[in-house]
Design goal:
- The complex is a heterodimer.
- Chain A is of the alpha/beta class.
- Helix content of chain A is 27%, strand content 21%.
- Chain A is built from eleven helices and 19 strands.
- Chain A is globular, with a radius of gyration of 20 Å.
- In chain B, helix 1 packs across helix 5 and helix 1 crosses helix 11.
- Chain B has eleven helices and nine strands.
- Classes of the chains: A alpha/beta, B alpha/beta.
Chain lengths: 438, 331
């Protein structure tokens, strides 16, 4: 199966033709016009390397009522993703080679996107004892990113050991920065809104104190640190400072922290309850500025499906988390590209190239986040940069419905996704999965 | 007005109207036959997820004096503790045909969800939610303040008037207090000036958004503000250090009960510093010897028992205003 993407703009540049054949980008320009290929009219569409998410909760094994690898990767494909990193907070926890291999195989079997399991840092995410990081790294799942996401590795000694230990296989520790004592019972950002609505406050310093400690630890032991879901202006400043010292830190912002604010908690609708919490408009602006100037390296979805009953309740009883895979590109496009703050090449950097490099999946035959050049793996997403669309929760491919963007209009929509040259999405709808080993 | 969820829902005119209705309700409560036929055939559900005998009895009395049928639904153990979900409880009440639901809940915003999540068509009255709001408490406090500070011989309840120019000090655990939040909003709406007094650990981050002043020094506030009323908030035992704050319960908000009483308690000395006409209020139940001394609680200036009586009149007014609509009155 081969595809000719006709009139497409790679990274938003000059229109050309791209031929996808035998899993590779086979030719560009005039040489691409080979007979026999299925022609995709890509006039006016932007081509980006397939998106890579470093932060997805697929919920399987354990919470198949909220999401499965199959449904979550369908959502990923529709969102333009060709690779997703599945977080370890499943049941059982992905803290052994057995569980990460199970998740990896489920991803291969589903075939909508490559699933890269994230290994837990500590046994059972309990923050006490290192999990067998080496066994996970050398398993078939080839784990390179480790995280207790959902929980902070708050013990400074455990964090230091983890940072040091993963150097043996060029791993990275992805930290959920949340000082547990400062956030016990916390429900929302601590500030003017929490004071008024009477929900227990979650201070910015609870995130910033951990980031400050961790960048210094990473410097001390010479290891790679990735800071998940940065949510405050102070955190952006700390990361900027750490990078100025050449500390090997990378940082992620989520679409929801870029767009939404704590004002939404006034509705008491747990749809807007998330960890870390939505912050102020000033924090969101600092994140957008940080994303534009490169302080923030990646946009990660923190796609967190929850069953209906876990959100259809009072705020305090609601679960933390919101969907993200199917809306991430639209949010980034609306906030950053339509406003002229970033180019499509920048979007490719923060949603594909940088995450693939951090996750160490940017080499080899199954590489992601590669340039759109002849010979590279044909992981490509086509985006209509001017399409305006309204988010309909009922229309999502995810098993869950907890999107915070319902009814919101976004600019920029995924039209097609190609995984190793096979179309997983065509004309904005699911096409066919890619068979195992394809 | 369809629900009463927050003191912020009340504009000046509506607040004064409610206080005026409460005044007329209070007048009927001096009669030998206290019961009015106004809400005959209507059903009021008291939905209490949190123990509060005094608030529940107050609402129950108010509803019964208006001839409503009252159902007490004690739902201790909400979805938070894995019982029936708030949604299912709401659907049950809807099916039973409740006209009004009076809800007390430990989760801030639960009444808001009950009113707006589409589970229930009844009027919702917030009888205290978490650390958010307790609007009928603020109304009864405003009613009490107006009677003592605004009323005169011809108009003892101050009917038709607001609280313009009056100053009120609210002292204690502001951080966790729905009474403080409701009073700050309502008393400001009615033109009063409010000063919060608390140790810094019990002042919420973000208080700068509130329509009041805040101070850490009670003596200074009494001396310089010369408040017309002082409202002492209950300090809960679990907020304390020492024995109340053992391992795993977090550090106390102040070092010891003694130190709290020394700095923020209303004792005989501070009582004497208050202006002659100033009244002493407390939403109850009191911790005698902690936030308020027996001297203050039992002094002639204390209107604490009267607050309880006014609570019934104010809750009658709220039920009347929400349920009776244009129907004939209690006259």
């Amino acid at each position: 199966m081969s595809y000719l993407l006709r009139g497409v703009s790679p990274l938003g540049g000059e229109p050309t033709d791209l031929l996808l054949a035998d899993g590779r980008i086979a030719a560009t320009g005039a040489e691409a016009r080979r007979s026999g290929a299925t022609v995709v009219d890509a006039d006016g569409l932007v081509a980006l390397p397939g998106l890579v998410d470093l932060h997805t909760h697929l919920r399987e094994p354990g919470r198949e009522d909220a999401e499965t690898v199959e449904t979550g990767t369908r959502a990923a494909a529709l969102g333009g993703y060709t690779a997703v990193h599945a977080m370890a907070n499943t049941s059982p926890v992905a803290d052994t080679a057995g569980v990460v291999e199970q998740v990896w195989r489920l991803g291969r079997h589903a075939g909508w996107a490559d699933v890269l399991p994230v290994g837990a840092v500590s046994v059972g995410l309990a923050g006490e004892q290192l999990a067998e990081l080496g066994a996970m790294a050398y398993s078939a799942a080839r784990v390179r990113m480790f995280s207790d996401d959902g929980h902070c590795v708050h013990d400074p000694v455990l964090m230091r050991r983890a940072l040091e230990y993963v150097k043996a296989f060029d791993g990275v520790i992805a930290q959920h920065a949340q000082e547990p004592r400062l956030t016990r019972g916390a429900q929302m950002h601590e500030g003017v809104v929490s004071a008024e609505v009477g929900l227990a406050g979650w201070p910015a310093v609870a995130e910033e104190a951990i980031i400050a400690r961790d960048v210094l630890l990473a410097e001390h032991v010479g290891s790679r640190l990735h800071v998940l879901h940065v949510s405050t202006a102070g955190s952006v400043d700390l990361i900027r400072w750490a990078k100025s010292r050449n500390i090997a830190v990378t940082a992620e912002a989520t679409p929801h922290h870029l767009m939404l604010t704590d004002e939404l908690a006034r509705s008491y609708d747990p749809l807007f309850k998330v960890n870390p919490p939505l912050r102020t408009a000033e924090d969101a602006e600092a994140l957008r500025a940080g994303l534009a100037d490169g302080t923030i390296d990646t946009v990660g979805t923190d796609h967190a499906p929850h069953s209906r009953e876990d959100k259809d309740c009072e705020w305090a009883a609601g679960a933390f988390g919101m969907l993200g895979l199917e809306t991430a590109l639209g949010v980034v496009s609306t906030l950053m590209v339509a406003t002229g703050r970033m180019t499509w090449a920048d979007v490719a950097r923060v949603m594909s190239t940088a995450p693939a490099r951090i996750g160490r999946i940017d080499t080899g035959p199954d590489a992601h986040g590669r340039p759109l050049a002849v010979g590279e793996p044909a992981n490509v997403v086509l985006v209509d940069p001017t399409a305006r669309w309204t988010v309909d929760p009922a229309g999502l491919a995810s098993l869950s419905r907890n999107t915070p963007y319902g009814g919101m209009e976004l600019t920029g929509r995924v039209r097609a996704t190609f995984l190793r040259g096979r179309a997983t999405v065509l004309d904005g709808a699911l096409a066919a999965p890619v068979g195992a080993g394809a | 007005m369809r629900h009463l969820l927050s003191a912020a829902d009340l504009d000046r005119a509506t607040a004064i109207e409610l206080l005026d209705i409460a005044s007329r309700m209070a007048a009927t409560q001096g009669r030998e036959i206290k019961k009015l036929p106004t809400l005959r055939g209507r059903t009021v559900v008291n939905l209490f997820f949190e123990d509060s005998t005094r608030t529940r009895i107050s609402f129950e009395t108010a509803a019964k004096r208006l001839s409503a049928d009252v159902i007490n639904f004690s739902a201790k153990g909400s979805s938070v503790s894995k019982g029936e979900s708030l949604k299912d409880t709401a659907l049950t009440l809807q099916a039973m045909g409740a006209d009004a639901v009076v809800i007390r809940h430990q989760a801030s915003g639960a009444p808001h969800r009950l009113a707006h999540a589409g589970w229930l068509g009844s009027a919702v009255i917030n009888a205290g939610d978490g650390t958010h709001q307790h609007p009928t408490q603020a109304l009864l406090d405003a009613f009490t303040l107006r009677r003592h500070l605004v009323g005169d011989a011809d108009n003892p309840d101050g009917v038709g008037r607001d609280l313009a120019g009056r100053t009120v000090a609210i002292v204690g655990d502001v951080l966790h207090s729905r009474v403080a939040r409701s009073n700050v909003q309502l008393l400001h709406t009615l033109g009063a000036r409010v000063t919060l007094v608390a140790p810094p650990t019990l002042v919420p981050v973000g208080v700068e958004g509130w329509t009041c002043d805040a101070s850490y020094h009670l003596d200074e506030v009494i001396e310089t503000e010369k408040p017309d009323a002082i409202m002492m908030l209950r300090v809960q035992r679990e907020r304390m250090g020492g024995e109340g704050g053992g391992p795993g319960t977090g550090t106390g908000f102040f070092p010891s009960p003694l130190e709290y009483t020394r700095s923020y308690g209303l004792d005989a000395r501070r009582l004497a510093m208050l202006p002659e006409h100033a009244i002493v209020m407390h939403p109850g139940p009191m911790n005698r010897g902690l936030e308020i001394s027996a001297d203050a609680a039992d002094s002639p200036r204390a209107v604490i028992v009267e607050q309880v009586a006014n609570g019934v009149a104010v809750r009658m007014a709220v039920l009347y205003r929400l349920l009776a609509g244009e129907r004939e009155a209690w006259a």
